[in-house]
């Protein structure tokens, strides 16, 4: 899953033994960034703040207790089978005790556009139910995946669904796709003015089209891609000061501020969560 990151603070990290990771079918490489199955029995309520860097996520709720979205206005039900577009801040969630079994798909923005059939700028910022976008196809997919006996079979069903749908969906403008790829390959180091010149647009036009089609402006995506690169280095236990210098931050303080703004935690909190130390819960039984 080298093209995206999931950052969760130490105190809220999900127990690693409850995770099942898989790569998509080779035909989906570059479009589907990876699969993550989560299977865990929560013995007590769990609050956590996942921050996804570099992907649109679709989560199939195969078995879940009540899940609430926490914001300044209080707690509100979070949609089942949520689709989350690109975000510049973490999500605050609360889950009730019980069995949690979910399958999350990480998608490139272009693949998400093709799957969902709408520009990502139209997605609600805190998530939308997949059924609202795909109708009965979403319901049938979740039911089929929930009925599968093993994680291998679940991932294969999602592979088949995406293989059938992605080639026939709409795509972002070629200039927007090119801009995303360039920001990804350079780790966010490319100046937006230079990127606009590459695609033959004004900087303002690039800003408007990029945001409308992918959900965030290119400057924010550049910050996310740079932080994604930094997260990869932190995961190897590279000191934060070295990571800040290597990734082009002015200093370690600048790096820490940007990390907190985009993920809700600090580099130190992220590092201390590897390997993941779980909340008050236990892994559910595994299936091969």
From TrEMBL:
SMART domains: HTH_ARAC. The keyword DNA-binding applies. Keywords: DNA-binding, Transcription, Transcription regulation. Signal peptide: none annotated. It comes from the Bacteria. Residues 266-288 are annotated as: Disordered. Residues 181-273 form the HTH araC/xylS-type domain. GO terms for molecular function: DNA-binding transcription factor activity; sequence-specific DNA binding. PROSITE patterns: HTH_ARAC_FAMILY_2 (PS01124). Gene3D superfamilies: Homeodomain-like. This is AraC-type DNA-binding protein. It comes from Amycolatopsis sacchari.
């Amino acid at each position: 899953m080298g093209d995206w990151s999931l950052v969760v603070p130490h105190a809220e990290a999900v127990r690693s033994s409850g995770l099942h990771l898989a790569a998509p079918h080779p035909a989906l490489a570059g479009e589907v960034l990876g699969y993550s199955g989560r299977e865990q029995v929560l013995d007590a309520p769990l609050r956590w703040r996942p921050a996804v860097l570099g992907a649109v996520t679709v989560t199939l709720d195969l078995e879940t207790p009540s899940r609430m979205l926490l914001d300044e206005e209080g707690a509100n039900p979070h949609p089942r089978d949520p689709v989350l577009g690109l975000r510049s801040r973490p999500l605050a969630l609360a889950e009730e005790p019980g069995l949690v079994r979910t399958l999350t798909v990480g998608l490139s923005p272009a693949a998400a556009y093709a799957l969902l059939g709408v520009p990502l700028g139209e997605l609600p910022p805190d998530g939308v139910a997949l059924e609202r976008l795909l109708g009965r196809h979403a319901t049938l997919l979740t039911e089929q995946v929930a009925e599968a006996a093993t994680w291998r079979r679940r991932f294969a069903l999602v592979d088949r669904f995406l293989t059938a749908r992605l080639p026939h969906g709409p795509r972002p403008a070629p200039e927007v796709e090119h801009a995303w790829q360039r920001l990804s390959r350079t780790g966010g180091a490319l100046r937006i003015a230079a990127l606009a010149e590459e695609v033959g647009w004004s900087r303002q036009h690039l800003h408007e089209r990029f945001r409308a089609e992918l959900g965030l402006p290119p400057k924010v995506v550049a910050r996310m891609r740079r932080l994604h690169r930094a997260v990869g280095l932190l995961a190897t236990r590279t000191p934060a000061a070295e990571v800040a210098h290597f990734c082009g931050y002015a200093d370690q303080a600048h790096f820490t501020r940007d990390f907190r703004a985009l993920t809700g935690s600090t580099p130190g909190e992220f590092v201390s969560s590897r390997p993941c130390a779980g909340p008050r819960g236990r892994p559910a039984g595994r299936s091969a």
